[in-house]
Amino acid sequence: MIVYFRLLKESFSFAMNALRTNKLRTVLSLLGVTIGIFSIIAVLAAVDSLDRKIKKDLSSLDKNTIYLMKFSFGPTEIPQWKREQFPDVTYEEYQYLKSSMNGAENLCYQFFTKRENIKFEAKTVSDLNVVPVSSEFDDIQKLDFQEGRFYNDSESNSGDALIVLGHEVAQNLFENYEAIGQKVRLYGQNFTVIGVLKKQGAGLFGDSNDSSVFLPSNFMRRMYGDNADFLTPVIILKPNKGIDIEAFKAELTQKLRNYRGVKTGDMDNFFINVLSGFTDFLDGIISQMNVVGWIIAGFSLLVGGFGIANIMFVSVKERTNLIGIQKSLGAKNKFILLQFLFEAVILSVIGGIIGLLLVWIISMVLTKALDFDFFLGTGNVLLGTGLAALIGLISGILPAISASRLDPVEAIRTGM
């Protein structure tokens, strides 16, 4: 065992010597490994960070949550011209389903709408996300409050001018002042602030609750009616835990078809978007990103492997005399083989570590610049190091074999 430790120490010394004496050649040769490891780990780290963000943002929602509306969250075979003829879901349909869907734990009625500006005295917050929604929303997607509360069923049904502010909106409007009870202006109306949410951080698609405000959907209906072109209604359903989601979807489909009078044989004129289907769609995109990253990085690793092999062949040539002396003193072929293999692995791992260091630095910079947590996990660090070692092992095997098979007499003579 001591012999192998000494062998590893010698190999490390030779590798460091190669870096010192042939800086440009070694750096250029290691560049392929560095770029390859950087490419792979950068893609994997970005994908892992995105995956963690998706899970964090959707953690408050049941994956079986359903969005019932005229649009599909994912690809569909129904042509666009046909989808444009689908009617919007209505408040009456929401009430009907709420009273008739036995397997539903909760339903709420929401509008998707355009971004707006909100004012408090002389201060204005621009381009915020407005979420008109009924009171059950807080039961479907649990909201964390810094202060105050969400509006109740009575306030929601009557469409009272009440509003819940995201953390960032409240900070920009009131700074250190008490927000609860203050009057803010939106849609030309005064709203009373009844709640402020806790800080959430950047959202999956740029938005988050921090830059959002929540108000009763019936306020929008009272102000603009049900057919305003800037309002897209959606019914959100949360099924009971443990329910057969396919059976639930089938029941929902049949009830809405009957309510709308859709004839047998005609296609559905609505979409049932299950959140799990949306996350599966995102997972597919993430998997494709991983594959593309591996393909791109594979070419860099191939070039890096040739670079390491080049270094090792040159190293064998430069140390032919030394190899002959070692063999003449009793060094076995296995010792020479392992010596050069260790050296190749060490050189390759150095290139890999540089690549990992670059990923770590860039992830730290982007995390601060974009307010998005880029995560370089231990698994990815170990994967990068392992890949670098594997490239070194594969690239160094032929030079190491050629060194181990040298005839000691010929080696000494050639090196003189």
Question: Concise description?
Answer:
The chain crosses the membrane at residues 26-47, 292-314, 335-362, 374-398. This protein is of the alpha+beta class.
Describe the secondary structure blueprint for this structure.
Blueprint: H1 2-21, H2 23-57, E1 66-69, H3 80-83, H4 91-100, E2 104-113, E3 116-120, E4 123-132, H5 137-140, E5 145-148, H6 153-158, E6 162-165, H7 167-174, E7 183-186, E8 189-197, E9 212-215, H8 217-224, E10 231-239, H9 245-260, E11 271-274, H10 275-318, H11 320-328, H12 333-370, H13 378-404, H14 408-415
Parallel strand pairs: 4-9, 6-8
Antiparallel strand pairs: 1-10, 1-11, 2-10, 3-4, 5-8, 6-9, 7-8
Specify the biggest β-sheet.
7 strands, mixed
Strand content: 15-25%
Strand elements, count: 11
* End-to-end distance: 33 Å
Oligomer: single chain
Total helical segments: 14
- Number of individual domains: 2
Helices and strands, in order, run as HHEHHEEEHEHEHEEEHEHEHHHHH
Low-confidence parts, pLDDT < 50 over ≥5 residues?
none
- The helix/strand class is alpha+beta
How would you sum up this structure, described in words?
By secondary structure, the protein is an alpha+beta fold. It folds into 2 domains: 2-57 and 281-415, no CATH class; 87-269, no CATH class. The chain is 57% helix and 16% strand. It is built from 14 helices and 11 strands. Strands 3, 4, 5, 6, 7, 8 and 9 form a 7-stranded mixed beta sheet that branches. The mean pLDDT is 81. Belongs to the ABC-4 integral membrane protein family. This is ABC transporter permease.
